[in-house]
Automatic annotation (TrEMBL):
Domain UvrD-like helicase C-terminal as annotated: residue spans: 82-145
This protein's UniProt keywords: ATP-binding, Exonuclease, Helicase, Hydrolase, Nuclease, Nucleotide-binding
Species of the source: Paracoccus aurantius
Stated name of the protein: 3'-5' exonuclease
InterPro entries named among the record's database cross-references: DNA_helicase_UvrD-like_C (IPR014017), DNA_helicase_UvrD/REP (IPR000212), P-loop_NTPase (IPR027417)
Source domain of life: Bacteria
MF GO annotations: exonuclease activity
Pfam families in the cross-refs: UvrD_C
C-alpha cells in the first residue's frame, strides 16, 4: 500500500473526531484494490465514524472499543425473512451511534442505572446519567423502560422467596413521570378488603356427590 506520507499528513492535522473521517477518506480508494467485500467494509467504516462522533476524545473512544469490541461485521449477516422476528441484544456502550424503531431498556432501577460502582463521585454519577441518555435516544418510534419491582436473592433454598425491593432510577424523577405512559405487567391483586368473601360450603353434601 502506498501513500503513507499522505496518511501521516492527514492525521497530523488534528481534531477529533474529524481526524477519523479524514483517515477514512484516505483509505477508501484502497478498499476496492484490497478487499472483495469493499462495500460492506465501507459501510463499517462509516458506522465506526458515526459511533466515534459520540465520544469527546480519541482516548475515550479507543478505551471503549478495546473493552467492548464488535464481534462481527454486517457482511456476515443474512437478509431477514419477512415473516421472521428477531431481537437484538446490546449493551449501552455497543448501542452508541445506532438506532432502532423500538428499544427496551432493562433494569432502570438504582443499583443498575446508576450501578453501585458508579455513585462514588459526581463525575461517575454524571457518566451513568449520560449512559441512560444514550440508551433512551437509540429509539426512533417506541421506548420502553423496564423497572422490576424486586430482585430475588441468589443462593437461597429451593423455591425461596427472599428478595430485595427495587427503586426507580434517580434519573427519572417523579416530576418526569407525566411524560411517560406508566403501565404494569399485570393488574394489582385485589386486597382483602375488596376481595369477595368466600361462600359457605357444605362439605358433607360434596362428599356424598363424589362417592355416592
Amino acid at each position: 500500500m502506498t501513500g503513507w506520507e499522505e496518511l501521516v499528513a492527514v492525521l497530523q492535522l488534528g481534531g477529533w473526531p474529524e481526524a477519523l473521517g479524514r483517515a477514512r477518506l484516505w483509505y477508501e480508494p484502497h478498499l476496492d484494490l484490497i478487499h472483495e467485500d469493499a462495500e460492506f467494509r465501507r459501510a463499517d467504516l462509516l458506522q465506526l465514524e458515526q459511533i466515534a462522533s459520540a465520544y469527546p476524545t480519541r482516548e475515550k473512544f479507543l478505551t471503549d472499543v478495546t473493552l467492548d469490541p464488535p464481534e462481527a461485521t454486517s457482511a456476515e449477516a443474512g437478509v431477514p425473512l419477512k415473516d421472521e422476528d428477531y431481537l437484538i441484544l446490546s449493551t449501552i456502550h455497543s448501542a452508541k451511534g445506532q438506532e432502532w424503531k423500538a428499544v427496551f431498556v432493562l433494569n432502570v432501577v438504582d443499583g443498575c442505572i446508576p450501578s453501585d460502582l458508579g455513585t462514588g463521585q459526581s463525575s461517575d454519577l454524571e457518566e451513568e446519567r449520560r449512559l441512560l441518555y444514550v440508551a433512551m435516544t437509540r429509539a426512533k418510534d417506541q421506548l420502553t423502560l423496564g423497572m422490576p419491582l424486586r430482585f430475588y436473592v441468589t443462593q437461597q433454598v429451593k423455591r425461596g422467596d427472599r428478595h430485595l425491593f427495587a427503586a426507580r432510577t434517580r434519573f427519572i424523577t417523579s416530576d418526569m413521570l407525566e411524560h411517560f405512559d406508566v403501565t404494569r405487567w399485570a393488574p394489582p391483586h385485589a386486597t382483602e378488603a375488596t376481595a369477595p368473601a368466600p361462600g359457605r360450603v357444605d362439605i358433607r353434601a360434596s362428599m356424598r356427590d363424589m362417592w355416592g
